[in-house]
User: Fold this.
Amino acid sequence: MRDWKRYVREHLPLPDIEGSLEVEVVEEIAIQLEDGYRAARARGAGEEEAEAEALALIGDWSTLARDVQGSKRFARAPRIEHRVEDREFAIRTRGGSWVPVADMLRDLRLAVRRLRRAPAFGAVVVLTLGMGIGANTAIFSLVKGILLDPLPYEEPERLVAVLNTAPGVGEEVLPQSAAVHFTYEDESRLLEAVGLYNRFDVTVLGLDEPVRIPSIYVTAGTLPTLRARPLLGRLFSAEDATPGTPFTVILSYGYWQNQFGGDPEILGRTMSIGGEAREIIGVLPRGFRFLEHDPAVYLPFRFDRSSLTVSNFTNPSVARLREGATLEAATADLARLMPVAVEKFPGGVTLAFLEEARGAPLLLPLKETIVGDVGDVLWVLLGTVGIVLLIACANVANLFLVRAEARERELAVRRAMGAKRRQVAGQFLVESVLLGLLGGVVGLGLAHAGLRLLVAIAPANLPRLDEVSLDPVVLIFTLCISIISGVLFGLFPVLRWGHADLVNALKEGGRGSGAGRERHRTRNALVVGQITLALVLLIGSSLMVRSFQAIRRANPGFRNPAEIMILGVSVTSEVAESPDAIVQTHEAIAHRLAEVPGVTSVGSSSSVTMDGRAGWDPIFVEDSPLPEGQLPPTRRFKWIGAGYFETMGNPIVAGRTLGWTDIYNRARVVLVTENFAREYWSDPAEAIGERIGTGMAPGNWREIIGVVGDVRDDGVTQDPVAIVYWPMLLEDFWPEIRGDEPFVALTQFYAIRSPRVGTAGFLREVKEAVWSFLPNRPLTNVQNLEDMLRGSMARTSFTLVMLGIAAAVALLLATVGVYGVISYVVSQRTREIGVRIALGAGSSTVTGMVVRQGLFLAVIGVALGLAAAYGLSRLMTSLLFGVSALDPLTYAMVAVCLTAIALLASYLPARRAARVDPMEALRAE
Assistant:
């Protein structure tokens, strides 16, 4: 006779059944086959015939396998539970401190059993908590990565941004001057290293076509300040930064990999940047990032010290303090060097001017300058999602109260039989913490997906996004809030039933009892809390909506930005030898661009609205002489060509615009914005014909020929800035520094207006128009003005989206909370409602009775929410635009809408109550 167990194992696939259960199944089937075989042999059948009859008992092994797995599927859990129970018993027998461990294991086993019997309840709780925990995890990841983590450099606490301040001329924060930088580099006692840097796009030649790539120009001390170490080669030396020496370049790791395939023999090769052959001397390591920038290459600043003056405060600077040096001591040390710089590099700022301007060094922690004011947004968002989690916990607490109420009689019996309050509380808390942890697992999955979405929609100026991740600290944070959430909502049934009167509990547990007021107070309080918190979030979200609307209505200083393309073109002295020839080339390019099909107008400027490239100069007004010793205020300035205002759509408020004739004639003319004109003359028209000038002293006057509309040059959320527009070719511009040499703006950013912007082929035609005068010259910073406008609104949009999502979730949870409580009240008062209807109460009476209870909860929640919002919304003041944090219209609209939604949530169960059949209700009791 064959081995039937072995035969069954060979023919019966049981992938989902193993261990003792698999042995049991195989044994059962083998016994049946053996019985069939023995019966056939008893009837006189031969061995082969008997085996055939036995095997015929099973028609299809695959079908049998499916049937077995279906019937045994739920047998595994009890077996696992028995194993856990055995383990629990073994631990308990050890006695002493092991008993609490065994008790916890028992509570955990019972909690798993209850959740297995109510999967829908568990799924709702886990998903609700998962949304709240996931949102908190994602936002905390941003807060940690951007605000809390140190910068990714050695000893980052010693890194500072080196700035200047000159309150005497209205400049609170200024970048660094090269002359001052070299004075600090040579003379400072408390700076271990200091570097100057700036970001520029450069042109790489020698490829299929010229390519513009981002670069960082640095002095020899910049990379050592950050403790950068090359992966290959070396860093820049003082010789690399000396004019007249061979040109060099350092590659970033990403550019080395992408452009050169990670060639280890790259050192010593050359690449053409801006028409200059540069030797590659080094490659920086993977993961190195230069502050908030991500350059492809690093180039050495090459300053001729003999020609430097204390002027041109245009470059950022970073320094590393010596060990033990404080910010205050280092600032004092640099303050003594400011006069030294003026004496060491004469010809710029004088000592008298420095004193009058109250010029001084300003050192700030480097991280503070990188992060900026984005911390306000992130902290508000973290508080917002924290409120969402509280609302979710309140919802789950209500579910737990209802579930615990269904076990009220059981709990009362257990207490009457001697169970301690600690044991009853332990069961509730173990189950709630288990659900909290499961919600945390779901939350991590949602946070991972949400974080990728947050990074995608975050504003472009949100720094350090590449450093945001679900790292161990974030995981610990998630674990903590999961446990805290579980304890928080688990405490409600503990507090409600941990001190319950056993006699009353046993009575109320009987059939036909109604729900007293006591048992509803906690649930009502939770609903009121949900409404309160939801109203706070809705008001915050509504304020952001109104801010966004105000931003959209604000005049940025241009119109129809979707029809304007911006691109930069540089005309160097290599292409056009004289200043007039440079202007002629720019004019020819402008005319050629105007001939591109669909183009309606073309204009140019050294800086277009919101691009951050404008400069600052002191401005004197001829008929407003300054008092003795008072310094002139600095104003923003730009150099423009003809057609700029017409193309941008910025109106000429008074006077006229600038023409090419004015530029070629080097006319001593200028245009100003309306807010500049109103600052000195009550009517913009009065500014026409007046004269202003710039330089070290009054004089060198130029006539105002036009006043243009105000421009929000720092972004649509910022106030308009007073701007002075000079012609792109100027005579006697800063003669104290330039002498008789005329000034011409080599780089102009063209504004091209056309309904074809963004369509296929338009950019190619624009490139060809430029290349017809400047073959293979790359176009820089090509973008649509609409994108620039959207970028200036990015922070507001990001905050609006996040607050809107949080408020929507909060509103949904609060609505569900109201609906759930009122529905439960209706179910508990079914007998009472049936009696009322039997005694003649109409449906409207019953409906009104139920709705009034919902309205009562809503009114209390809204009142408390208005008070809370009044105190908390003012924290959002820095994020708002064009609306007050205490805007009464917003408060009133949100309060009315939330009350109406709560009434609707109450009305639905009220309608069900009005349709109660009194006979069915009484019969059920």
About this structure: The first strand starts at residue 159 and ends at 166. The longest helix spans residues 421-457. The radius of gyration is 39 Å.
